[in-house]
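Teaching assistant's notes for section 4

Start the section by putting this record on the projector. Ask students to predict, before seeing the second block, whether CAZy families GT34 protein will look compact or extended. Collect guesses on the board.
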Amino acid sequence: MDLHTYIMEPEISLEEQVFSKLDNITNRQLGDFNPLHISPDVPYVDLTSPVELVITQ
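Reveal the predicted structure now:
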């Protein structure tokens, strides 16, 4: 979100709509979407660790 983002339904919190569902709606492995065929630095993904960075497109 930035200064130009419009919240269309202010009665629904971002925590409820997005942040509480991060484990289910994010891709945490490079193999899920890798158009440049970059080899992953880490050979495994610890799915029990919390999401630390979210990059949107």
